[in-house]
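BUG: 3D viewer hangs when loading the predicted structure for this chain

Environment: internal workstation, default settings.
Expected: structure renders.
Actual: progress bar stalls at 90%.

Input used:
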Amino acid sequence: MLESSKFDYLIQRYKNKIFNYAIYMMHNQMDAEDITQEVMIRTWQNIDKFNFYAASAWMMRTTHNLCIDYLRRNKVQFQREISIDDNLSERIEDKKHGIMPEKKLSQNMLNEKIKSAVENLPERLKSPFVLYELQGFKYKEISKILDIPLNSVKVNILRARKQLQKDLKVYANEELN
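Structure tokens produced before the viewer hung:
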């Protein structure tokens, strides 16, 4: 009975983070659902084998590893059914009421550029960036999830930010001209 309540707690707490991360990695809803389900199955099978207090890192590392394994097995360009983050535009969008249509169009174009720039990051930069900036994990948690040194996490997030600044600066210069 205790295993069941532990499992229920973990699934309720982390299912959305697992699914969202799988979406970022796979760019395909069906594949992300399959990976999420597989993580849940493995969580149930291993509920007594990992530290319950480190369950988040264990589950996210399992998710990351399953995504990488799947991508390696299928080295085909994936059709992107779901954009990088459907809620990103809500977080970026100006919250003032009465936005003029041209401003709204400009904001939507910027949101698409940001999503595209994040999607185009190299995998070694995108994974830590997404986990930190969009999923809200701490550096130590990301280090455990991706099984890389803490300093590598920090460096990769910094490099991702710099790459995004560079990519978006090009866009900003195009807009000014």
